[in-house]
């Protein structure tokens, strides 16, 4: 019969990317191998869709993709299609009704069941729909097929206790459930043992960690504990909520050398009126106060955010308040989105839906302002000497420009001149910044220093055997880094969508 191949297609947030690495690990544990990158659509024995329910028209996109696979499945006896993730949790039996050629539908809480459900569908020759109502196992406890040799996600909590009116994720991922601190640290130590030198702590509302286990300072303690792990060079986290951003977290960031000077903190709106309608539990003054404290403690911190333009009821005055916060906060980068209705959310039925053309004009004004600020802030980096962790696949033009790319401690993307000696992803180089653009920096001079690392060794070992080289998860929306150190597009929940 031969070895069966698989392909995982991932849409949406970092939580889904993390889950997909686990789905890949589960399938490989069950004897599947990843389909070659150039295999073409429909040429894997198992195709898994890990879906997102936050995107507008997410369901249409899914059914369009499933429709394209239907004739391919007919022509390929034994091929199986599985649908998981938030849209599966939300639509359940609807998926099989609309696409009866789907073999397995599973939810966000029971990803560990995928191999069993595929086998059951094959033996019984009928679709298997199994949606757990609560978490069966933390994703991080399952086998994994990581996409990077040098960087890794570590899930510290799942679910969310917030009730933001634009977000459906808490209904699909459930209430917040925290993982034991000892389990988190044990996983990080194991990853470092495999050559990982950068980890990103992941949670739907990452800095609320501890609310489930009854310790309000658990997150800051976790950051400090990460600082004690030998060989762990960089610690990041995404995405925090301003409500839970307490002074002890800022102190832990400032005082723990391997916690990077980078913060992604969703704003969503600068208007107190709109924030109240969104059920965001902070106001403009509180948000700017956090920014001020972070900058006082960590002067070189790069702060990024998410902003929604055109939320129902947003007036011109409300929008000007958002523009005011952007001017005051001086974000390194902002992920800006035009509000669109998300089925199943309270905001979708609110009065005062804003006309598309009004939202578009406000959006363009906001983007123009943020571009100007991003460029001005990046220009301040010119002349600085920075240590970069060399990245894989971050510079689309690196081949043509004879450059390599890496991430600065604050997560800015830097393209640098390729040195004469070999430099591997995961190695660390020291460069001087010579030029700034709004979304990247250049180091056009010679590299000042190259430090070969255990992460570089791990990358080299992984890539020594071509058969072991990962084909790469197919991501639906913007991907930044491996793993995405900056959030991708967001619908506004704690982990960007």
Automatic annotation (TrEMBL):
Q: Where is the MTTase N-terminal domain?
A: 4-123
Principal localization reads cytoplasm
Q: What is its EC number?
A: 2.8.4.3
The record places domain Radical SAM core at: 146-377
Arranged from A to Z, the UniProt key words for this protein are:
4Fe-4S, Cytoplasm, Iron, Iron-sulfur, Metal-binding, S-adenosyl-L-methionine, Transferase, tRNA processing
Cofactor field: [4Fe-4S] cluster
Q: Which SUPFAM superfamilies match?
A: Radical SAM enzymes
The free-text note explaining how the cofactor binds reads: Binds 2 [4Fe-4S] clusters. One cluster is coordinated with 3 cysteines and an exchangeable S-adenosyl-L-methionine.
Q: Domain TRAM: where?
A: 379-447
Q: Tell me which residues bind [4Fe-4S] cluster 2.
A: 160, 164, 167
SMART domains to which the protein is assigned, alphabetical: Elp3
One Pfam family from the record? UPF0004
Protein localization: Cytoplasm
Q: Give the catalysed reaction(s), semicolon-separated.
A: N(6)-dimethylallyladenosine(37) in tRNA + (sulfur carrier)-SH + AH2 + 2 S-adenosyl-L-methionine = 2-methylsulfanyl-N(6)-dimethylallyladenosine(37) in tRNA + (sulfur carrier)-H + 5'-deoxyadenosine + L-methionine + A + S-adenosyl-L-homocysteine + 2 H(+)
Molecular function in Gene Ontology: tRNA-2-methylthio-N(6)-dimethylallyladenosine(37) synthase activity
Q: What is the annotated role of this protein in its UniProt record?
A: Catalyzes the methylthiolation of N6-(dimethylallyl)adenosine (i(6)A), leading to the formation of 2-methylthio-N6-(dimethylallyl)adenosine (ms(2)i(6)A) at position 37 in tRNAs that read codons beginning with uridine.
* Family recorded in the similarity comment: Belongs to the methylthiotransferase family. MiaB subfamily.
Q: What is this protein called?
A: tRNA-2-methylthio-N(6)-dimethylallyladenosine synthase
Say which species the protein is native to.
Streptomyces gottesmaniae
Report the gene name: miaB
